[in-house]
Amino acid sequence: MIEISNVTKSYNNISNAVENLNLTINDGEIFGFLGPNGAGKTTTIKMITGIIAQDKGEIKINGINTKERPIESKKQFAFVPDSPDMFLRLKGLEYINFMADIYEVPKAIRKDRIEKLAERFDMASALGDKIQTYSHGMRQKIVIMGALIHDPSVWILDEPLTGLDPKSSFVLKEMMKEHANSGKTVFFSTHVLEVAEKLCDRVAIINKGKILFCGTLEEMKDHFKENSSLENMFLEMTENE
Ligand SMILES: Nc1ncnc2c1ncn2[C@@H]1O[C@H](COP(=O)(O)OP(=O)(O)O)[C@@H](O)[C@H]1O
Ligand SMILES: [Mg+2]
User: Fold this and answer.
1) How far apart are CA 109 and CA 96, in angstroms?
2) Does one domain contain both 72 and 191?
3) Whether 135 and 157 share a structural domain
4) Mutate to test the pocket of ligand 1, among 43, 80, 191 (most ligand atoms within 8 A of CB)
5) Quick one: how far is CA 232 from the chain centroid?
6) Same domain, yes or no, for 241 and 157?
7) Is 172 a member of any domain?
8) pLDDT computed for residue 238 by the predictor
9) Largest CA distance in the chain
């Protein structure tokens, strides 16, 4: 569970990148965070994950305040950032072991998890190669594998499907569903509306740092006239700003 209360962030003290944001992401749901480029999605995710600090407000992950107990709160989640270009000089397996070390995953458990993740993402034969040699999609997959190695209850994914090939995208979406169905939490951002339409239990739409809508897709459809596609609704919402 993620609870965001009255969170505000400004990069320049002039305008707010995120303004008075309130969101609760419940256990057992896939929650889509939608918005156009520059809306404030990544800023919000960076605050949830403690990469940057909010100016105001409070964030709790599984009830743990991210500012008061940063290490405990970080143990609760997996984070997949929007750019997978990191630790390029490590081999895939070295990177995953590095992540497993940080999160103190016991050696016996980790081997099994690595095998399962590698198999699902079709990465077994690439684990011995340097990440530098990976395609964008493979880099994305190794970052996801590293993020999931400690099997956290909360998944936080920033544009996770961008750059994945159709098969990997399918696999990740299946894993997101399984995770939510097992009573755990999936929070991801996207500007690809079709993805949200098929995958999410609930969505929030953010534009210019403010939440324009939060609810189920059904509610959203009711809210923005019947029979119009999510894309139309989305355009309507952002145009009215
Ligand atoms: N490091 C930064 N310094 C200054 N402004 C930033 C920084 N990161 C993001 N912004 C600004 O904050 C706003 C929200 O950006 P961001 O959260 O990255 O949006 P999104 O992820 O929805 O595309 C944009 O106006 C962007 O230009
Ligand atoms: Mg972003």
Assistant:
1) 13
2) yes
3) no
4) 43
5) 24
6) yes
7) no
8) 64
9) 55
Residue 175 lies in a domain: no
Predicted local distance difference test score (pLDDT) of residue 196: 84
Record the pTM: 0.93
Residue entry with tokens 């949830």: 48
Would you state the structure tokens that stand for residue 148, as one six-digit string? 């999931």
Sole residue written with tokens 């894993």: 175
Helix, strand counts (H, E) of the chain: 9, 10
Identify the segments of the chain with pLDDT beneath 50.
none
Q: What is the pLDDT of residues 168-187, one digit of tens each?
A: 999 999 999 999 999 999 99
- CA angle, residues 31, 33, 37, in degrees to nearest 5: 160
pLDDT of residue 16: 97
Range(s) of the domain holding residue 123: 83-151
Pocket of ligand 1 (CB under 6 A): 11, 17, 35, 37-43
Residue 207 CA to ligand 2 center (angstroms) comes to: 12
d(CA 239, CA 38): 15
As a dihedral over the C-alpha atoms of residue 103, residue 105, residue 106, residue 112, rounded to 10 degrees, the angle is -160
Residues 63 and 89 in one domain: no
Q: How far is Cα 89 from Cα 87, in angstroms, rounded to an integer? A: 6
Residues 64 and 98 placed together within one structural domain of the fold: no
Pocket test for ligand 1, best of 9, 10, 11 (most atoms within 8 A of CB): 11
Is residue 65 domain-shared with residue 87, that is, in the same domain? no
Provide the pLDDT for residue 222: 79
What single letter denotes the amino acid at residue 206?
I
Half-sphere exposure of 71 (CA within 13 A, CB side): 3
Is residue 169 domain-resident? no
10 & 68 share domain: yes
Q: Which two tokens stand for residue 228?
A: 């119009």
